[in-house]
Amino acid sequence: MILARRLLLSMLMAVFLVGCGQDIEQNQADMSGEVPVAEDSSLSEKAEEENEEEPAKDVAETEESSSPEDAVENSSGPLDELKVHYIDVGQADAALFQYSDGEDSYTILFDTGDWRGNDVVNYLAAQNVSDIDLIVVSHPDADHIGQLAEIVSTYETGEVWLSGNESSSKTFQNAIEAVINSDADYHEPRMGEEFAIGPMEIDVLYPRNISGKANEESISLKFTYGDVRFIFTGDAEKSGEQEMIQSGMKLDADILQLGHHGSKTSSSSSFIDAVNPSVAIYSAGENNSYGHPSAEVVSLIQDKGMELYGTDVHGTIVVTTDGKEFSIATKEDGTISPKSSGASSESTSSGDSSSSTSESDSSNTTSNEKSENSGSASAGSCININEASVEELQNIIHIGPARAEELIQLRPFKSVDDLSRINGIGPARIDDIKNEGLAC
Fold this sequence. Notes:
By secondary structure, the chain is an alpha/beta fold. The protein has helices spanning 2-19, 46-49, 71-74, 119-126, 148-154, 170-181, 238-246, 269-275, 295-303, 311-314, 367-373, 390-393, 401-410, 427-436; strands at 44-45, 82-86, 94-101, 104-112, 131-136, 156-161, 185-187, 194-197, 200-206, 220-225, 228-232, 255-257, 279-282, 307-310, 317-321, 326-330, 332-333, 348-349, 378-379, 382-383.
């Protein structure tokens, strides 16, 4: 199984490099089929899991949080419960699961933040993460796969899940190379698959298959810990939500991460009703240029009587559960208003604002702050096509090294539509670039 999956990953990298007009590096030759078959993945489908015993892992012990309100500061304490950290990573996504079963501890990471920051890497270090059982990247956009390369190079990782869709960005290329060069197993999950990692059950809700629509075909998962359920859908849009509903799978969950940073392209009323969460959480950058979360989505959630949290207002959000009940702690207090779309909240610092975790301003730079510090190449969370460097431009879908050089030679551009002047960039690819939302 490992051999097959590594070959699949190597083939994905090969397709990517051919599309960019590059040759496969010589150091990937050992992925050509001569790799000896190793023992099966540490992650297995439920039927296999029942017959396997996970080896115990060493976990550094720290003082336990004394109350839910202290969870943000002390969330690296003994893991006799599940903690889900919705990490404040600006206009990007990253969520950390930490839990244990007796002497065994487990770590799962869903999405890896923005390519211009190191906030996820810093946060993992602050939570005393020593290894990672599973990393899931919902789709290849640079605000979701951004720090994958550094993470798999830093932490021993059991398995990495990607959708199988590609991006022409340098960030995606670096991530794929890092996974190939690591000891991590690789899998492309599909609708209906079921897995178990210790006491955590994982149901794959989406996609059924892929067709190159990276955002729309985001990996969507349901995590079940005891009686408490969480759903993550990446940037999956309403069409994908409808497919999930029509699949007949049980979508009910206690906590839903709103798709696409709370954009109105996701979170249809019918999907919200099918999930019927008591709490909705979104990840977005403060005062982001996209207007996330959408006022329409904020009103929808609040009109249905559900609690709403957002990283732009509340900072990092930590959900703690014993598998029966859950509590929520936030770094900041604040109110989300539909009128402001969450961009300019009335957030005020709480007693948690002096937290010693990696959320401090001195150790973490959000995507927006990173853009400001790097000069005028980026505006907010977007990449300025008239000022960005060759490396930055390659994070835009369909812009590889050759096209980045051509783009620089053809500057200035009046708009993103004007990128059609670049060889090989037609109307369909212009639509992809605009839908991705990175170029400006």
